[in-house]
Amino acid sequence: MAHPHFVPEITDSFVEMHEQYLVPAIYAQWAYRVAELAEIDSGNRILDVACGTGPLARAAQLETGLTGHVTGLDSSEKMLEVARQHSKIIDWQLGDAIAMPFDKNQFDRVLCQFALMFIENRVRAIKEMLRVCRPNGL
């Protein structure tokens, strides 16, 4: 049986609620733990898939140091607008997790926090994550 396609509309009020309540209560506290577990090294190239307003990307940026590079990818321009307000250093890009606008083997670490459940074609998204991650990456 096919499941109905669920794509929540990202409204301004949702983004405000997300940033005010969900980020501090859930996303931010786990972002630092995920970044730590990812064993990010100084100088690494990091991709945060479905980054939302960017708490994980910002945590990863702290781990990469001055020589690293972090990219946040999200399908919502409204979420990225808020993310850009938090960090001018991170490369915030509009794009889809199932068709990423990146070359093969481009990142040392590809991270995704609390988003896979909202991606309709999870297998394809994971294949894309593997495609853009360097061999021996994570």
Topology:
Elements: H1 12-37, E1 45-49, H2 55-64, E2 69-74, H3 77-86, E3 91-94, E4 109-112, H4 122-132
Parallel strand pairs: 1-2, 1-4, 2-3
Helix pairs in contact: 1-2
List its salient traits.
four-stranded parallel sheet, 4 strands, disordered N terminus, alpha/beta, globular, Rossmann fold, 138 residues, single chain
What report would you give on this structure?
The structure is a single chain. The chain has 138 residues and is α/β, with parallel strands linked by helices. The protein has one domain (12-132): Vaccinia Virus protein VP39 (Rossmann fold). The protein is 41% helix and 14% strand. It is built from 4 helices and 4 strands; from the N terminus they run H-E-H-E-H-E-E-H. It has helices spanning 12-37, 55-64, 77-86, 122-132, and strands at 45-49, 69-74, 91-94, 109-112. Strands 3-2-1-4 form a 4-stranded parallel sheet, sandwiched between helices. Helix 1 runs parallel beside helix 2. The radius of gyration is 14 Å and the shape is globular. Mean pLDDT is 87; it is low at 1-7.
